């Protein structure tokens, strides 16, 4: 395959005609496809239906410590639920608070609490002139939406194959007191599938923040969400590493079972130091009478332990893997050698990240849409929805069927080609 | 019975000796009783165990509009859940947002959102020098804890048998722009069991707030929580009344199934105007990916409709009523005529409110505690925990068994007598 950039103007014009014809043919099919949603397919949800039988009218509803899971009380989670979530995150139960149905809400509430009441006795952020936040890019749009909602100035940090550019992270965190946090998805990052290297984690743990209330928001969303039985990434335990480095209070870690059991009906947790837990609980005791303990019991009795969670994730992977592979095969077959985009094969998580030629992402997404394929909006993976290079596109292969996924990937590749040719013609 | 205040010093001294002896005898029994907790008894929780079978591995998990209740999506609640909660509150589904497991959290989040982002475009409260709040007293300590947590200045408003003193409410709300809210438990109020009269509700709906962002926090916690089949209180629909009065945006109403199904595992909702719903959703869409829809489905399929809820509340009442009546009988038998306290027989809700002689509440609670009976702390029913008369005590008869309740009430009455005699002797 010849790279598009090496084609002459005439060759490009001819190619454009061919691609346009193919595109019009596709459009005529009236497809209705969606690669935007990072949500499990129905087949995955079916995997856990028997969890709904686990707690029933005949069940003993007492937790291991005698708590009646049906009544008020127990602010921070049943002991066995803390243990399960601790094992999931690779930390200790005493570092864990179990919350409600989503880690996103814990993150929002953590930013909100810092804004209204401050972190561990420091000035509430609403009283500060300026609060800044580091955002490894590309990243997760819902993270950026939270910091934007609170008027926090977001600073892009480029991702490398080992995690965020740590030179830049250190420069900002260690020197600028207004930098109060950083969004991280350290394992199978959203959208690139990057796993933070041991060195990256250790450099995080050894930050010397200018701000006493700087916190790493460590969203371990895909902690056990492997796609393969082998090639499973290992990530250092950030809570432990921070403690070792003399920075025990510097991190909030988050995880949930949203993509293990049921999105919206799972359980979510935070792991952090004793001092942070005490600080969080001061607000938590005002905000809630406690979370859904029956659902906590349901999860623990169904999964039993970390091995139960892992076994379920293996079943998820068997459904997810063919979709990822079908997508990657189409990208490989259709685009390799053309030099119109790059992508990385992920070993876990929910996404494939595609980097188009500069200035092409919006056009690609728009071409897809016109032909019946909904993609995540171009720019969504950047703060304020602004991708400076207009290049990154997030592909979510989980929700469609494998057949739909192949159709969708095919159409996507065609749109990439067409947009790239258009772009190259602009300067010929 | 002769009123204690009419006894001579000698009579009081003799009485004190007798009561002290009785008290020491009680203390020697080593009782462990609790009338502090407004939580359902295990027998009540057993009433709803079969709800746990309603949604199981064989269930159709699609909601009425085709939403897969197991997956992401549906920010404001399944249509059938909105309908159920609307019927519970006596309003329309389009006025309802279904939230998570507790109305307290909705209230906290509403205050927090107003503090960080303002109400419908008005200045966020964190940017104001002063925010004030009206607190009908005695009231609910967890309400007061929320406003205290945000540094909001709380102003006591005396309760009457028809609800809060509306002259005072109107004076503050209609003239002071820094008054941004009022806590109300309009039906079977916590702790007095007062039901707001139609006139009170209409006067609320016709307030002319100085502040555009003033909101009534209408915590309809006991909306269907009657103790009797007859004598069921009716309350006007505040959302409708506010609309009629040209104040559609002035109220947030809250309710939950916490004391219908399971505390902590129920569903909670807010009812308000379209404009407020749009305003709330702006933040909600950042804060959550949606609440637990499987639990919503479980509730709707189990209760089916408002009649299902009402039938369940009848069964709850049959368990609660004997405890209330046992308590009231002891108070009547032991204290009537002594003029050492007043109380009102409630027809719903979870509490009996007792007003001791001025300056006696703390002493009574402390005497109870010493003899093994935990009561809600004296002062808890007032903002900042300060009862200016040191008089009000909240009695929660729901959790103990009827036998325990009778024992507890007996001990309580004895402590009331002893503390009253001590108080009268101070001035003889």
From TrEMBL, chains A, B:
Superkingdom of origin: Bacteria
Entry-linked InterPro entries: AspAT_Ic, PyrdxlP-dep_Trfase, PyrdxlP-dep_Trfase_major, PyrdxlP-dep_Trfase_small
Pfam families per the UniProt record, alphabetical: Asp_aminotransf (PF12897)
Example GO molecular function: L-aspartate:2-oxoglutarate aminotransferase activity
UniProt-recorded name of the protein: Aminotransferase class I/classII domain-containing protein
Organism annotation: [Bacteroides] pectinophilus ATCC 43243
């Amino acid at each position: 395959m010849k790279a598009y950039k090496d084609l002459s103007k005439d060759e490009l014009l001819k190619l454009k005609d061919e691609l346009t014809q193919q595109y019009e043919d596709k459009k005529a099919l009236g497809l209705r496809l969606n690669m935007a949603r990072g949500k499990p397919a129905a087949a995955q949800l079916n995997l856990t239906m028997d969890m709904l039988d686990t707690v029933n009218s005949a069940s003993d509803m007492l937790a291991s410590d005698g708590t009646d899971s049906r009544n008020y009380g127990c602010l921070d989670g049943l002991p066995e639920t803390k243990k399960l979530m601790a094992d999931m995150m690779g930390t200790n139960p005493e570092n864990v608070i179990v919350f409600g149905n989503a880690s996103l809400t814990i993150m929002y509430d953590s930013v909100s609490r810092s804004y209204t009441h401050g972190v561990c006795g420091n000035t509430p952020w609403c009283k500060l002139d300026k609060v800044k936040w580091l955002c490894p890019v590309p990243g997760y749009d819902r993270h950026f939406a939270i910091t934007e909602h609170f008027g926090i100035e977001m600073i892009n940090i480029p991702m490398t194959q080992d995690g965020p550019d740590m030179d830049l992270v250190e420069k900002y965190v260690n020197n600028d007191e207004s930098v109060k946090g950083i969004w991280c998805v350290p394992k199978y990052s959203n959208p690139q599938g990057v796993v933070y290297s041991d060195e990256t984690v250790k450099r995080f743990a050894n930050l010397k923040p200018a701000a006493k209330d700087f916190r790493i928001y460590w969203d371990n969303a895909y902690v056990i969400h492997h796609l393969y039985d082998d090639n499973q990434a290992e990530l250092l335990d950030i809570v432990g590493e921070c403690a070792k480095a003399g920075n025990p209070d510097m991190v909030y870690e988050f995880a949930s079972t949203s993509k293990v059991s049921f999105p919206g009906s799972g359980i979510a947790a935070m792991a952090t130091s004793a001092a942070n837990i005490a600080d969080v609980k001061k607000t938590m005791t005002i905000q809630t009478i406690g979370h859904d303990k029956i659902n906590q019991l349901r999860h623990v009795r169904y999964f039993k332990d970390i091995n139960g969670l892992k076994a379920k994730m293996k079943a998820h992977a068997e459904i997810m893997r063919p979709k990822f592979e079908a997508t990657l095969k189409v990208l490989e077959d259709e685009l390799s050698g053309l030099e119109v985009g790059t992508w990385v094969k992920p070993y876990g998580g929910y996404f494939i990240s595609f980097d188009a030629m500069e200035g092409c992402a919006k056009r690609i997404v728009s071409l897809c849409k016109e032909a019946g394929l909904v993609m995540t909006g171009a720019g969504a993976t950047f703060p304020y929805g602004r991708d400076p290079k207009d290049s990154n596109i997030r592909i979510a292969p989980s929700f469609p069927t494998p057949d739909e996924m192949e159709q969708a990937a095919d159409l996507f590749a065609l749109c990439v080609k067409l947009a790239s040719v258009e772009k190259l013609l602009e300067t010929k």
